[in-house]
Amino acid sequence: MFRPAWRSLALASRLPPPLARKIPTRLYTTDPEPTKSSSATYIQTTKTFAKVTGLLGLSSAVGILVVGAAILAHDAFTYNEKHVDRVPVNPLALHPERGGPKNLPVARILVDDEEDEEAKLLATKPRLVIVGGGWGAMGVLESLHPGDYHVTVVSTDTYTTFTPLLPSAAVGTVSVRSLIEPIRKLLARLRGHFVQGKAVDLVMSERLVEISTVAPDGTNSNFYIPYDKIVIAVGSSSSTHGVPGLENCFQLKTIGDAQAIRRRIMDNFEIASLPTTSPEERRRLLSFVVCGGGPTGVETAAEIYDFCQEDIMNYASIVTRMEDIFPKICRKEVSIHVIQSREHILNTEKFRRDEVDLITSARVAGVTSDHVLYTTRNANGETEQHSIPTNFVLWSTGIAMNPFTQRVSSLLPNQVHKKAIEVDSHLRVNGAPVGDVYAIGDCATIETSLLSHFMELVDDADEDKNGKIDFGEWEHMVTKIKERIPMAEDHLVKVKELFQLYDSDADDSLSLNELFKLLEEIGNRITSLPATAQVASQQGKYLGKKLHKLSRTSAPVSSSTPAASGNAAAIHLLSDEAVSKPFKYFHLGTLAYIGNAAVFDFGKYSFMGGLVAMYAWRSIYWNEQVSARTRALLMIDWIVRGIWGRDLSRI
């Protein structure tokens, strides 16, 4: 509170001298000292701001100059004229000799096997042929070291695809270019070779794989590629389950499938927006049916739902207000149906909140050009048939052998599995020459039957050869079973209890009949590994590491000689067992995008989260990309989608 000067003087006259000296007597005048201090502070602040601004501008200018200079230097050293003269090519690479059962050309020497000294050295290495370009094949390539093998990859596509994000590509959340990487670029580290074609036959007696390619005139051209070791990683095809009309369905396994789905979705919305479209036809066009409640089906249904919510009806960006891209009646008429044969499905609660039609415990009976027929059982156990009008059906349930795996399986009499090639715990194809042929991924399944090794297990464990297995011998047998079939480990935890349970006559030993029943029951409990990218990737990395060790410890068997003899096969078996333990799968959980959220399923435990879980899902998939290029493109796609929405172009 301020006082006039005369009030201060009057007050000072009535106080004792010590206190009177403390009373201010300044008048209401401008104090020159505070003014001077404020001006100095303002000037100093202005100078500091100008200095910082100048430094930032200077550093930005320097940064731009440095980046520009780096780009110019890159262009100067990259985009220059290079003359390739007198490239050495072996005549047998241009005119291969013929051989094999069908007297086809045998590509023992490739056109680039002698182009430099490193290529010549690799040509002397054991020949490793990888058939396929998916998760398993890329896992093998990732784990191999340069100089291990003369590597050749055979694939119908020139690129590898990040399949878990195909549902996102199907609605334009990400670009298809962000999900693919050329196989030749991934092979460059190993100085490997690529052949675009498909494997159609395998001659194990001569170590030849028959490849079919398309000639420029459209005709097929077949030839053989020799191998010392071959890895079959061709994936699988969709199982029909005997359902008629699947030619009216889409699948989601390739980039082409994602592009076809996107075109159909956009066509449906465009036709539904026409004034000449009837209400019944509009509802049919905007009805989306997904057959299969696995991760692919769930994520596709969630992506379609998000597409309708965020881009069809309520489109908005940072530069425009919220707008309706399509007529509101289109969003009103949209219906999404998920048909699942089992009771459990990922994301049940959120789908129901979003009014997605979940049809569980149902079986698809048929698919026509405009309807999906499915059956359920009522409370009385009677079968009832239902119909859903639709112009879009996605089939994502079950797997089956593709033609090449069927051919390989037919060549081996002990291959009885109907959906995949059976391999042992070291991923070697059962019945094939030991150590020559491996199979991984969806096209393979690890044996689960213990009875096929019954006599071997008995001979090894029955030390006293009395035809009975006592508890000590049973413990030894359990150890051997875990080594042969690691998946049986979870079912052999209670060793003592199992022994007592099947010792029906309580004589402290298991007869052969009792042991047979015990092993049969354990084998029935073991479940095959799921046909997922996670399994294929782990198998590929495991096999790649093992092949690397084999290349350092084993002498190669020339591919120009006939199949390995019994002694050579024993060496291969010893090598596999000596350098690596059997393959053991570690389940890291199942991830699924469920519409601006994500669900994590770890078997016994599962949880669903919102945006935080969605970004965790994105982080995991971003980290699993095969190259820095696809990581950068994927990040850009997510940013563009968040700012400007999905691309609604029909290409």
Polypeptide structure, described:
This protein is α/β, with parallel strands linked by helices. Helix 6 links the parallel strand 3 (127-131) and strand 4 (150-155). Helix 6 (135-143) runs parallel beside helix 19, helix 9 runs antiparallel to helix 10 (279-285) and helix 15 crosses helix 16 (471-484). The longest helix is centred in the first third of the chain and has 47 residues, at 32-78. The strands form ten sheets. The protein has a five-stranded parallel beta sheet with strand order 7-4-3-11-22. A four-stranded parallel beta sheet has the order 15-14-13-19. A three-stranded antiparallel beta sheet has the order 8-9-10. The protein has three domains: 98-156 and 197-239 and 398-448 and 529-553 and 569-581, FAD/NAD(P)-binding domain (3-Layer(bba) Sandwich), CATH 3.50.50.60; 246-397 and 588-644, FAD/NAD(P)-binding domain (3-Layer(bba) Sandwich), CATH 3.50.50.100; 449-527, EF-hand (Recoverin, domain 1, Orthogonal Bundle), CATH 1.10.238.10. The protein contains 22 helices and 28 strands. Helices cover 41% and strands 18% of the residues. Belongs to the NADH dehydrogenase family. Pfam families: EF-hand_7, NDH2_C, Pyr_redox_2. Residues 449-484, 490-525 form the EF-hand domain. It is found in: Mitochondrion inner membrane. InterPro entries: EF-hand-dom_pair, EF_Hand_1_Ca_BS, EF_hand_dom, FAD/NAD-bd_sf, FAD/NAD-binding_dom, NDH-2, NDH2-like_C.
